[in-house]
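Quick one, T. Sequence first:
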Amino acid sequence: MTSNNLVYLIALPLFSSGFLMILGRRADKWGHIFATLISASAFGIGAFEFLQMLARPSESRALTQKLFSWISVGTFQVDASLLLDQLSISFVLLITGVGTLIHIYSIAYMSHDMDRRRFFAFLNFFIAAMLLLVLGDSYLNLYVGWEGVGLASYLLIGFWNQKPEYATAAKKAFVANRVGDVGLSLAIMIAFATFGTVSFSGVEEKVSGASTAALTGIGLMLLLAATGKSAQFPLQSWLGDAMAGPTPVSALIHAATMVTAGVYLITRSNFIFDNAPTAQLCVVIIGAITLMFGALIGTAKDDIKKALAASTMSQIGYMILATGLGPVGYAFAIMHLLTHGFFKAGMFLGAGSVMHGMDDEVNMRKYGGLGKFMPITAITFGLGYLAIIGVPPFAGFYSKDKIIETAFNAEGIKGLFIGGAALLGALVTAFYMTRVIILTFTGTKRWDEKAHPHESPFLMWGPMAILAIGSVASGFLLSSGNRFVSWLAPVVNSHEADHAEHVERFQPVVVTSMALVAVVIGVAIAIVKYRSEVPRVAPTNVRFFTKIARRDLLQDDFNEAVLMRPGQALTKFLVATDEKAIDGAVRTVGAAVIGSSKGIRKTQTGFVRSYALLILLGAFALLATIWVVTL
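Structure tokens:
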């Protein structure tokens, strides 16, 4: 079916962003309200399309809208078209819904910033780019949104770029994402060379006739793209530093939307990965490594935002792992993505609320007992905490436990390995998130006397309360009667019949019991470790593992030693080669021409008598030559 309304989803926030930037300071007094209303309007359009979609049969729910013919070169034909189906509408509602709540929150959070209007313009540009990413009907259309999201994240992370470390964090995120973007570019090129098209429908139709090598190559390049955008191993080092941006940015980009783009890309490309077992296995491995990587880093962070960033890295690792587990895994990955959008965005906004009440202090060792002074923040954050660690009946219990169950039921030894990793990740998650709760909201106060913690205004805690409701209810609503699995079935073939084919290594009740035991163990360890008085300064006499966890498991050291230093050395070598060999050869030729020109120029004196003498000598030489030849 076709529609003419899809373009407004993107056009409204894009227009508002440009409009606010063009007006400049003239829009300072009302720009934030205008941007928020535009975001809410986009959510309204998305909700309307969702209701319309529900009224249609499942096989007729997808809508398309052709905007114009974009590229027409020989056999390479690409239309600028939009696709709204069960997968993309899920993202549209998440992006615009959570995005609007974050807009409302930001009105108060950024109230004293003189560049608040510019901040809201960047927010709307990000929403427009993210919507294009999930609504594009081809890899090339998706790529435009993909790059737009990268630009928006650079602008928002470095929003306070007057601080050099913040500008550096923005550049780091930009460069890491560019590495992943190379993968997406190569995947598009291979897809066109293999299938003659880059549209999702065209690739899906022809995928059965492609070679395994080509599909594996496309899958691996798509995975590289996903690791960059979703901060997965080995391109995860940028996410912690990206907390330099304003806290609403962390909630929108690094919890609910941008970092989930890699999960969307793999899920949208399910027809590629289902026919490329090697690439699919690599997806599982990357997800398993990252979920443990992020969880271990989270255990050692004292910065509340960086602890939540490590948690984001880990939770997206769960999603990536799930996308490598076949048709039903895609549905559980997206379900966890949606529930995560509620509870993690809520916790990031809660962290911002704490910072607001603590004069922008981020060190949890200088908090303590804030629950008495910020009860609404403590309750909403606590509900997100219960959701992320998987306590029933909160959202994470339904979504994350399904991923753990599906992982254990994977074939062969792979199931035991990844299931064990996912279960261990749940234990570590319970530990470090309980640590965050204890250090921040319980115990005795550890802040300076000049600090005056207080509850945030309604415009901040109102969105937090709504997200907390989602943290409680979203998991049950999505999982009830395998509702979400059936919803995504037309896109990823995730019908209930699919997982009837799998042999269950463990019954669901057994997996749930193991997960709950892991959660209890993690919570108990954190309580025992942090129930006593916590020092305001992190101790230095710590174990080796704690030291390297504080340094993000040496990810920056690894990048510097393996990538940056050799890259610098290679660059210096190439510069020297260019200067001495290539430029040297050019300069030698030039010097030879100049030298010979100087010598020849001496024969051009400008005197007639000299030229007459040369003519005479030439004549004698010519006659002499003729005489010799004729003898």
